[in-house]
Design goal:
With 150 residues, the chain is α+β, with helices and mostly antiparallel strands. Helices cover 39% and strands 26% of the residues.
Length: 150
């Protein structure tokens, strides 16, 4: 998505948690605790992946995208699919997206990433393109009159 910015990736945290589970220091009952709401969101709004569940290895994981933001009002906290995110990104100034992976077989769930979307990202990227041109000054040299009086 063009307006995606300020992304935070939680893959290192995920690997550390899985290491704890596989070593026996954390039980699967502690990490396989998806709520019924999350499981329903995965079923109706989720995006299937090709990656197997790291805990049970029975089913592929499903990604669920939750949205939050002031402009969303009563829609804040809802799960949306990628097509809806793209449309919202063009209509709203800014909103936060949280991506959660879910296994519908064993209830494994983990926050994968979070990022901002919205029209404000388009404005920032357009300004970012103009700033290097302005900073170069187009070959402007310092005013020589100031040095002549010394």
């Amino acid at each position: 998505m063009r307006t995606q910015r300020q992304a935070v990736d939680y893959s290192l945290q995920r690997r550390a948690l899985l290491r704890e589970v596989f070593s026996g220091r954390v039980g699967t009952y502690e990490v396989c605790d998806a709520s019924p709401y999350l499981k329903n969101a995965a079923r109706f709004h989720g995006e299937p992946t090709e990656e197997r569940c790291p805990v049970c290895r029975k089913e592929n994981l499903t990604l669920v995208h939750y949205i939050y933001g002031d402009e969303l009002k009563q829609s804040a906290g809802q799960a949306r699919n990628r097509a809806e995110l793209s449309m919202l990104a063009m209509t709203l100034r800014e909103f936060q997206v949280y991506v959660v992976e879910v296994c519908r077989a064993c209830n494994w769930n983990h926050l994968v990433e979070q990022f901002l979307l919205g029209r404000d990202g388009l404005l920032e990227s357009e300004q970012g393109m103009a700033e290097p041109l302005a900073a170069s000054g187009g070959g402007v040299t310092p005013d020589r009159r100031h040095g002549a009086g010394r």
